[in-house]
Write a structure and sequence with these properties.
The chain is of the alpha+beta class. It contains nine helices and four strands, in the order ααβααβαααβαβα. The protein is globular. The chain starts with 6 loop residues before the first helix and ends in an 11-residue tail after the last helix. It binds flavin mononucleotide. Flavin mononucleotide (FMN) binds next to strand 3.
Length: 214
């Protein structure tokens, strides 16, 4: 593991790495990164995320072909393919409630949660489900990205891929929706320029739209 950083340093210094050296990740580091994602919050604690970790050279080549031939897909030590499972909640609701009860979920909540979750999610259109999955998967994804950066790794988030091709390359079930790819490894060569960020006055309001934050 490289030199660790504080979360503030990781946030300030993180760049979307343009190129990686491909040295394999120690399995315990990979696990720590993945576990950080699994700790993310989600609506009703339904945890609809699923991840496919691609490390084998042949699979990285296939994934690269599904990702507009982006070289970093093949160069990275690992690519975490972040997906949502549109049917996950149906299968997982009892497990979620059991774990919740073990952790102290009030019985009154547990008793009505199954109906609430079913009522909320079963009426979703495909587009609404994809939006719901995107929202949750990206929180877990960001936890992983920042944990990797804190641990001294470099990362690159990617939305440049073709849904159908990633499905085919990874043999994903039909209910899976690919949200983003996260390349993890060590930077090779020069880092990306810092593109800067819009400041608070441009992007943040206080109390209502248009009013500056005091
Ligand atoms: C969800 C997401 C998808 C992205 N997809 C790609 C991509 O497919 N290819 C790429 O080279 N960069 C991609 N980027 C990187 C962005 O271009 C980069 O984050 C942005 O320019 C800001 O640069 P910085 O992250 O180095 O500060 C993506 C970033 C995010 C957050």
């Amino acid at each position: 593991m490289a030199k660790t950083k504080t979360l503030s340093q990781a946030i300030a210094e993180r760049r979307a790495s343009p190129s990686f050296d491909g040295v394999p990740l120690p399995p315990e580091d990979l696990k720590q990164i993945l576990e950080a994602g699994l700790h993310a919050p989600s609506g009703y604690n339904m945890q609809p995320w699923r991840f496919v970790v691609v490390q084998a050279p042949e699979q990285k080549r296939r994934l690269r072909a599904a990702a507009y031939n982006q070289a970093k897909v093949e160069e990275a030590s690992a690519v975490i393919v972040a997906c949502g499972d549109a049917d996950g909640w149906r299968k997982d609701i009892d497990l979620m409630l059991q774990q919740g009860r073990e952790g102290g979920m009030p019985e009154s909540y547990a008793a009505q949660a199954k109906t609430s979750v079913t009522n909320f999610l079963s009426g979703f259109t495909t587009e609404q489900m994809h939006a719901w999955l995107n929202k949750h998967v990206m929180i877990a994804f960001t936890h992983m990205m920042l944990m990797a950066e804190v641990m001294g790794y470099d990362t690159a988030p990617m939305e440049g891929f073709e849904q159908d091709k990633v499905h085919e390359a990874l043999r994903l079930p039909m209910s899976y929706w690919v949200v983003a790819l996260l390349a993890v490894g060590h930077l090779q060569g020069p880092d990306k320029y810092n593109g800067g960020r819009f400041d608070l006055a441009h992007t943040v309001f206080g109390e209502e739209f248009g009013k500056p934050l005091k």
